[in-house]
Each structure stands twice: as C-alpha cells, then as structure tokens.
Amino acid sequence: MCESFITISGNLLEQEHLCCAMTDKKHQSGVTAKKKWLADRIAEGHIFRKLDVNGKVFIEYAPLETAWVPIQGKSYLYIYCLWVSGSFKGKGYGKALLESCIQDAKKKGKSGICVLSSKKKKPFLADKRFFLKFGFTVADAINEEYELLALSFSGEMPSFSAAAKTMEIAEKELTIYYSVQCPCVVDCIKQVRTYCGKNNIPLHLFAVDTLEKAKNLPCVFNNWAVFYNGCFKTHHLLNETYLKKYALAHVKEK
C-alpha cells in the first residue's frame, strides 16, 4: 500500500485536484466554488487529506464548532466525507485515513470524532459498519433513520441540534438547502432549476452560505437537503434524471 498522503493547505489549493470531481468537466465550476469555500475553512482548522495519486481517496473533516452541520458538541472533530473508490478499494486506504483523523484528534486534545450516518446504508453518507469497527457508537438519531456516530475519548457525546430534529418547514414548494462544500452541488442546482422551470414546478433554493445558517438548519445536513410539502424528503443530490425518476415525482401533479 502506498502511504503517501497530502494534507492540502492554502498554497496547495490551486495545484491539487479535489478528488470527488476531478475528471468531470461539468463540475469544474463547482470545484472552483469548493476551493474558494475551502480556502476560508482551512484557516478554521478544516482538513482535506488525500492520497498522492489521481484517484478518489480522501478524508475531509473539521472542528465541530466550525463544521457546517446542525450538530452540537464540545471539542469534537466532524468528518464530512471519507471516500475510497474504484481500484483503490480493499487496500487499507480508508483505514489509514480514518486512523490519521483519530490520531489528529488525540494529538489536538479533542473529546472525540463524529460523522453522519444512517441505520441502513445510504448513498453520500458514512458506512456505519465500517465506523463501528473502530469503536464508533450511535450518539444520536433522527426518525430512526439518520444516525450520528461518535468515537468518544472523554465520555461526552455530540448530538443533533433541536432544530435539526424537526425535519419540517413552513414552505410547501420544493425546497432545497445546499452548500458548495461539495463540488457536485453547483451543477445539480443548475439542472434542478432548469427542470423545474421547464415543468412549471415552484422551487425555493436556500443557499447555506454561513456557519450560523448551517447550525440552525431544520434537518440533517451534510451539504444538501430536500423538502416538499413542508416535509424532509432526502439528503440525496438531485439532478434532472434523479428528479424525474425518483425524487418527488408527484410534485408536478400537485
């Protein structure tokens, strides 16, 4: 196993690719937005660590106090994403990246590490089974579906905010909360806006562009959340195909 990892700092942002959207041209505007967002976050202790290869092998985490999620806790690290894909799977890279995060947390005197997951495996969320192997346990849950996993060093546990547990909003139209923390979001927003415009579907887009907004969201959130008729529907990124085939197919009929 190659063990050459890079932690991206401010001076490496422009020259290093962001693994999750490195080859797809349609996401390049999203990559630009993500790099701008990341440049501000690095100063807050945000970490983007990747294998020194052209592949999707990376971990991204931040101090919970400055992580853009509606989760509260004292002196924790929050993992946004741990991704190993393709030919890099099964070679111990996920284990190495997570262990580096654990070591970093202990070195910094943190109370622990937490990550958003689910009772049953869902796309775009941490694999619960993998994290349980490292001693993570369920610290909190919403609707017996979404779970906050935590590895505590101090006995203290993080939790979802009270607002996040509502999973409801007043607006009845299709509503999407999003941040540019994920490079894929910019293109997804473009596709959803175009599709809804062509099909006369009322759409409300809520840009989560400050830490305060992120901490007070009315739902689980990693970088995307969809509501319809006032109820939370999915954390899954929507593009035109997904919107037509799966998500809220009845919207047009209402």
TrEMBL record:
Source domain of life: Bacteria
Limits of the N-acetyltransferase domain: 6-158
Classification via Pfam families: Acetyltransf_1 (PF00583), YoaP (PF14268)
InterPro entries on file: Acyl_CoA_acyltransferase, GNAT_dom, YoaP-like_dom
Protein name: GNAT family N-acetyltransferase
